[in-house]
Amino acid sequence: MVSFIGAGPGDPELLTIKGKRIIDSADVIIYAGSLVNPQVLSGAKEGAVIYNSAVMNLDEVLEVMKAAEEKGLKVARVHTGDPAIYGAHREQMDRLDELGIAYEVIPGVSSFLATAAVLKKEYTLPGVSQTVILTRMEGRTPMPPKEKLLDLAQHNATMIIFLSVGMLEEMSEILRQAYRPKTPVAVVYKATWEDQKIVYGDLTNIAARVKEAGIRKTALTVVGDFLGDEYELSKLYDKTFTTEFRKGVTE
Ligand code: SAH
Fold this sequence. Notes:
single chain
């Protein structure tokens, strides 16, 4: 059995109880060494064999899984954040299907949610944005033609950009064509890690500020007026609003 586990954003206490239980009892652990906090593996049992997938290709990862399965060993495949977001676990699951090896997926706290937490912000403010776009800049992985950053930006929704902090100058230039240039932006480096850094700015100055802070990778860029202070109160807690669980007060 192979368990794909979302290791969370960094703070080892942000690993799920289920994920931790499986890691701590696994015979073989394959973890994404470039981003997973090694502390997440601190409870691994003695004798567990640990591989760093940062230095392995897909065939090598599958080879380790296959060999473990043949010996009846339990494999924990540990991905950063939640594997469903830029985790590249689909291609592994498909290969396991072909090999007839059973697997499960244990979700994790994605870095984009940890980022909202450390910023102490809500992405979906009434009257500001009710939509969150998770995307990236085109790098070696091309963007599908209908998902160009400028097209996505036309919505002025809350936008969270992964894997792209090294291209912040170009990113802000594109976003300024669709958002107000003074739209607030935050860049969060290593959210929830001990060396976490937060840089605030707007679409005109964020690139320079982030460069000055020396941030080149492992950061998320979040854009939108959800970072500002103007919004409408929610209907959910509006005292005149009746919900399934609560009667509204008539004034
Ligand atoms: N599956 C992961 C994302 C993997 S892609 C998740 O759910 O978070 C790797 C990118 O995620 C990094 O380039 C960076 O943009 C972002 N990232 C991962 N961990 C992060 C963290 N702790 N703080 C900020 N960004 C992070």
